[in-house]
Task: structure prediction
Amino acid sequence: MNAKIITYDTANGTGMLITTENEKKNFNINDWTDFDTLPEVGLLVDINDDSKISLQKKKVNIDEEKLAKLKNIRNKYIN
Result:
């Protein structure tokens, strides 16, 4: 199931996410299984819903050719 983090409190390690089915779910840093990325508001995540929520940053496929074109367009306006 896919979801988006809508709140996250770094002080106590708790947050809330909203699923693609518009369900709100609370989570705790102990549910986080992606050790390369920390939770943050706006991050898309995959939920592996077993007996407890297991969260991992959603992997997005990037078309490298389109990305290069976008960077070139951006650079025209920034430079």
